[in-house]
UniProtKB/TrEMBL annotation:
Record: residues binding Ca(2+) 2: 40
Name of the protein in its database record: Arachidonate epidermal lipoxygenase 3
Cofactor note: Binds 1 Fe cation per subunit.
Entry's family note: Belongs to the lipoxygenase family.
Pathway: Lipid metabolism
Native species: Podarcis muralis
SUPFAM superfamilies with a match to the protein in the record: Lipase/lipooxygenase domain (PLAT/LH2 domain), Lipoxigenase
Signal sequence annotation: none
Amino acid sequence: MASTYKIRVATGNYLCAGTMDSISITLVGSRGESPKTQLDKCGKDFSPGEVSEYVVQSEQDLGPILMVRLHKEKYSIFPQTNWNCSYVEVAAPQGETYRFPCYQWLVGYQTLEVREGAGERPCLAFWYFHRREGATYKEYQPGWPQCLDVDCVDNLHPNDQYSCRRYTAFRVQMAGARGGMRGIPQDLNSGSTDISVSPEYVSTHWDEDAFFGYQYLNGVNPVIIRRCTEIPTNFPVTHEMVAKSLEKHTTLEEELKKGTIFLIDCQILEGVPAAKLNGSLQHISAPLCLLHSTPLGEMIPIAIQLTQKPGPESPVFLPTDSEWDWALAKLWVRNSTFHIHEVLTHLLHTHLVVEVFLLATLRQLPMCHPVHKLLIPHFRYTLHINVLGRGNLFAPGGLIDLAMATGFHGLSHLLAKGLSTLTYSTLCLPDDLRERGLESLPGYYYKEDGMKLWEAIESFVKGIAHLYYKSDSCVKEDPELQAWVAEIFDKCFFHRESSGFPEQLKTIAQLTKYLTMVIFTCSIRHASVNNGQFDFGAWMPNYPSSMRKPPPKIKGRATFESILETLPDVSTTCNTLLLLWLLSKEPEDRRPLGCYPDEHFTEEEPKEVIAAFQNRLAQISMEIEERNRRLPLPYHYLNPPEVENSTSI
């Protein structure tokens, strides 16, 4: 018996998403296939944002529709143009409606097979072709996570490239910055309307001890401070040294026991080679900094040693020293944490780790797999920005070589050291806070907002996981999921068991934690360490990227002039400002956390879970805004509308 199927085809709402090519469709059901049917109606088809309706006739009832084939072929004399298909919807004669989420570019003349949208795990071998061909790895540098084997963004698949709108905005932004850094002076004076700390505020308060300490809680690197219960043996600080920085009638030992003493240890910088900038060798140090949380709620530095080896040529600097000695010591700590932040906290812990998450997803999880559907929105544009970075920032003579004391060689050395010590706990916020002894600390808004968001993501992931995994055995026996986790363990952590990263997942709880970590890293963690870079770094003395003189070995010799001779020169400063401005300014075409305009899940149950997640994010946003109204220095970086879904800049 002949059957009539009504078809709706949606073209992506992007500039250049439409096509003049001939588009045909074949329906594949459990009982057979329809004839290949050209999708053509009066007027122009497949314009950007358009949803077009067609009819497909079949001589038989095809049964449940499992898949559609989209055939893109040459039309008349028109040149080939790529086409972005959002989805296909099929209404069967019996009344059932099947939705086929696509959200892909069809490039050249090809046939694309799109699976019906219900999440399914594990997917049958029949669907293995949905894995991305060409998503292959390469070693970019020894000791780095492996990355996509593509050298420039022009060679990326259009699915992975910036949209025309975003790419244009980014190029205009970059051109304006390079052309005499136009636009930056305005930001330097006034700051953006959606930032927590304006560069102008930083330029006024950068040398204050309280603001120095504040930045290790709520600045661009809020993840390296830890509670100190015992002074390190290589940091010979005594009570007599710091007594004037503590309250009366207390001692350093008592404050250690009370948990009010904190430590920043830059030991990982030991042995990192420095580069030459403008012909002059720069200098890198590995300081230790002791801080005290005062009864007033301020985090203030109380002792600084500029090397890891104590001795006559490595004195402990104190707030009671001369103004310029103490200022110079703090500058060295800020410079050291600049390197740790940019290379490890930012580049390694978000961009490079996320790229392996992404590639493993494309290679091991077919589009119909629920974990693929869950994660793919959080990988948007990551490959584009990472490939762009490797081709521009890291290239010989790129901004890294022009702006940072490490240069690319030192950066590569530091990053490999960082990966060899990176642990699963580092990327799991509750574990990280516990290991650093910071579960409870007033005024630590990164922790306060981050934990709310971790728990919201965890609840969201748990809801999705329980829809598709009814028992722990379902997790353990999902070969695609296990291959995905194993590939991440291999390509990112090189089977290093000390990393604590799992090689397999055995329970729903383990799966929930792992997926929460992935989404949190792509979005929240990246926003927390990325979005404030220009805000805190536009005033160079607050965030120096290089030091032209070695760290002082003797107290009492620092002067205003010697500090100026130590800080970066004008050329290096301008290149650093350019780097920070480009890295922290999100171009157009944003998708905030929890924004899922591409409906990869088609069933009602996951849609309800997504809606609950979005409602919780809205509630968290209101709580953050209410709290910020009471703060002299608001913390906006983890407000959900200001957090990008993915690591995309």
